[in-house]
Amino acid sequence: MKKEQTPMNKMGTMPMTRLILTMSLPAIFSMTILAMYNVVDSIFISRYDMDGFTAVSIAYPLQLLLISASVGTAVGVNSLVSRKLGEENYDQANSAATHGLVLCLFTYAFFLLLGLFGVRPFMEAFSGGNERVVEAGVSYFRCALCLSLFSIIQVMIEKTLQATGNMIFPMLFQLLGAVVNIIFDPLLIFGIGIFPEMGVLGAAVATVFGQFCGMVFALIILFCRSHKVKIQLKGFRFNRMTVKQIYAVGFPAIIMQSISAVMMLCLNAIFQAYNSIVSIDVFGIYFKLQSFVFMPCFGLSQGIMPIVGFNYGARNKERMYSAIKRGVIIAGGIMLVGTVLMWTIPDVMISLFGSETSFTDVDPQTLRETGEFAFRIISLCFVPAAVGITLTTVFQAVGKGFRSLLISFCRQLIILAPVALLLSLTAGVCNVWFAFPIAEVGALVLALTFFFQLVRTDFSKLP
């Protein structure tokens, strides 16, 4: 029995910096790989057909919505499982993990319907009447959404195992999916060897196949190895309180990440109003490249969340504060590196997307000039975002997910979208990018306010 508890005890005993690195590095690595294959996907699409890349950029909010629902629910399960393990309440931890896996089916049902009936109306509304863009978007996202069950289940298993302190297998799940996707992307897009030329649809098929492989591997590990939590499907019945506790953190996390989709829709609508296809493409390229900075930061937060949740449940305030402080420092370092890259080599990053022959309605020189200016301005928000992301993780870890929701709502809708609209009307569409650092500073002020309020109330009660 003592041996079985050792992996969990490290979150209460291991030196904090070493613990954070142990917990976070696999997640940082896997999230970086995830960012890489998302970028590679877009690079191949842009070099095959820039209309396809524009379509994927316009419809990317649909993909964000899928990620929001699956990751948000899984974050709720992660938070509940880690807290119950910290309290040594193993029955409720098992129940939370089992509920999470069953809830995947309800999440998938929504996106199946969206894929079947919602993609075409969405593309027709935001494509500006370009039929090539509409067909490319429908082709890609109908496949991605209708076969999204694989990614939904994989994400849930990843977050469940991370809550127990197991960061290696979640990394391997993502790594397998990424490698499969990167291998099959060019084969199916361009029709290399025995594979048919499928264009944009080929990118979607490669992505879904990678997710399928990752899910199968995750299910094998979940059911064939011993873990701190056990999935108990036999005799399963929904427990209202467990579902409520999952979505107390999970629902704000879903809304918080879905807000990004709404923000993208707002900005794309502004760019579309000015008929600025260049800005739409620059925004799409930026969102792909910024994942190389934000994904490692999110990986760090995945490692910190169970540490904070465990020590909060175990009422160990000193270790909880230590994790938060070190998390802010490491996240700030990651974001600082991203800012430097955005300022020094934006032209190199932009040149990865598209060739002279793949552009149709976009002048390559205009794309590069617009992109360089946009990247430098937007990257000013990176370091403040590091603090905001870490504090958002803290709120989720201790069951205060609604605060995270308010911060994201403030950042991306209350501040960013209106400021972007105001800038487009007064300073021109080329200056919309200043809305990003303005919104991030406002969100940071709110996050710090919530955190110090938490210090004075809940945290003050810890011994």
What's the quick description here?
With 463 residues, the protein is an all-alpha fold. It has helices at residues 2-13, 16-48, 50-86, 90-117, 119-126, 131-146, 149-163, 168-190, 200-224, 240-273, 277-289, 291-313, 317-344, 346-350, 364-378, 382-397, 401-426, 435-456.
Characterization of this structure:
It is a single chain. The chain is an all-alpha fold. The protein has 18 helices and no strands. Helix 3 packs parallel to helix 6, helix 7 crosses helix 9 and helix 17 packs antiparallel against helix 18. The two termini are 28 Å apart.
Overview features:
463 residues, mainly alpha
Question: SSE layout and pairings?
Answer:
Layout: H1 2-13, H2 16-48, H3 50-86, H4 90-117, H5 119-126, H6 131-146, H7 149-163, H8 168-190, H9 200-224, H10 240-273, H11 277-289, H12 291-313, H13 317-344, H14 346-350, H15 364-378, H16 382-397, H17 401-426, H18 435-456
Helix pairs in contact: 2-3, 2-8, 2-12, 3-4, 3-5, 3-6, 3-7, 3-10, 3-11, 3-12, 4-6, 4-7, 5-6, 6-9, 7-8, 7-9, 8-9, 10-11, 10-17, 11-15, 12-13, 12-16, 13-16, 16-17, 16-18, 17-18
